Every structure is written in structure tokens, then in C-alpha cells.
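Hey, resending since the last one bounced:
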Amino acid sequence: MGFEEYKNIWVFIETEENAPKNVGFELLNPGRQLADKIGCKLVALVVGGKVEDVAKKAIEYGADEAVVVEGDEYYEYSTDAFAIAIETALAKYKPSALFIGATNNGRDVGPRVACDVNTGLTADCTSLDIDVETGNMLWTRPAFGGNLMATIQCPDNRPQLGTVRPGVFKKPELVEGKEGKITVEDIHVPAEKIRTKILDRVKEVAEAVNLQEAEIIVSGGRGCGGPEPYVEGGVIYELAQVLGATVGASRAAVDAGWIAHAHQVGQTGKTVGPKLYIACGISGAIQHLAGIAGADYVVAINKDPDAPIFDAADYAVVGDLFKVIPPVIEEIKKLQA
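The C-alpha cells again:
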């Protein structure tokens, strides 16, 4: 099929209350690489209340151009308003592909847009590539519970849509003052077409646990033996405190009820990309390893010398976490003093 009219790679820069989510800027990294690979433009799509400054930032992060949709109806997220705005922009500009962050809102609007414009969507991708000959995106995502990786194509429809987990890619280098064309589109959605409205905002624990932007994460697993290590006075909590780190957990710890799901790292939790990830008493199931693939350095502490986590670790400590961690905390305190 001929898709000559469909050009360029687009990245959706998600905003809420005019503030950009990091994942949009992260996706400009693979977007830039793939746009250069096939010789097309990288365009940021920014939807929000008043977000031209976000568009300028997207260009500084590597986009060639930005398309902006502004209006009061986009200040807070709603499926109807954002879907209509995105679909209208796609119909006018005809990009070949659109990358969307797999946030709560991205996972909501992506399938709605794909359905409305009659195309496919590959969800929760962890790797992106493109076939230069056909222009088909190669969306790679875990399948069968994370036991194998599937590469999916959408050869018969355009635009190609995919959602990508936050933390999979690093943000590109910011080039301050970099300029590019910004086009503001006058797309408005009448109130009667927005079928939901926010009555109240409740600050959830999930908002306080920002694993995806954490630079250091200390995670505990089944080896913690109970909830005590995660609370004040416990080894996981105290190590995180002295390092200024965020507390994470494996699925086993969350399923056991020792800590809230907001802390879960892995396939069914958050994909993370910290500078340092410390895995304490975590065996290293493939689903967990998929969630920490973006970490710069992994330190693993486990009693079992054959634990799979050691295959992913840069530094391995074979030992009881309750004996290993307390002296580490004391040494860090001495260094800080």
C-alpha cells in the first residue's frame, strides 16, 4: 500500500496543568535516532492549557518542529478533549508514526485515538526501530508474561501508534536556545463533547512515590521476610534515607502486602532508569529484570549465589541483607559526616 503522504515521526509531549511529563522528552531520544535513520523530521505534539514554552523545551530536547494545541479545555486531562485534539492534528499533518508515553493518561488516550483513526497500537514497548525500506515501525514489547520479546509491525495502516513506558529511554541532551518552527493549531472542543469532568483531586500515594524519575532506588524483595524493612528503622527504609533514594519493591513483596503497589518495580509495576539500583533480597525474575534494564548501575545483595539478579548486577554481594546493609549505612553516615 502506498503511504507517500504520511511523513515524519511525531512524539506526544503529555502535559497536565501545563506541566510536561518527563516521558515525552525521553521519547524524543529514540524519535531523533529513527527520524535521522529514515531522513525525516521529528515533530513534538504538545496539548495543554498554555504550553508554548513546553514546545520550545521539546525543540531544545531535539525536536525539529512542534505542533501546539492550546485551550482551557486541555488544562486538565480528559479522554474526549485530548483524543479529539490529537486526531484532528493527525488528520491534518499525516505523520507516519506517533510515540505516546505509557502513563495512565497515555494508556487511556492511545487506544481511543487508534480506534478512531482506524489504525493499530502496540502497547508498553521497551524498544523501537524502523524498517527503512517499508517505513514500518518495529515495536518491541514483552509477551507471554515477559518470557519473550515480540516485535510487532503495523504494515497496512497509518499513522502507526505505540505507547512506551516511562524510564525506558534517557532524556536527550538539552541544547539551550535551539530553535525550530512552532505551529499553534486552533482546535477547540465544545463542552458538551467532553463527557467527564474532574470533581476533586485526591493526592494518591503513587504521586509521592516517583520511581520513574528517581536517581537512586533501594528495592526489597521476598528476602525481606515481612513489612518491617520498609518502614522507619528497617534496613531498606534506612538505606534509602541515607542515600536520598526512593524505596522500591519486587512483585513478591507487594503481593505479600508488605508495601503498596506504587513502589513496585518490574513488568507489572514501573520501568525505571536510575543511576543506581540496589536490589536487596530480590531473586531477579525476568519480569523484574525487564523493569530495571535502564539502570546505569545495579548492586544486588542476595543469600543465593545462583540468583538470576546477579546476571544483571554490576556489583554482587552474596550475603544476608540484614547483616550486609547495617554496616553499609554506618559507613555512608561516616562519609557524610
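The mean pLDDT is 93.

Sorry for the duplicate.
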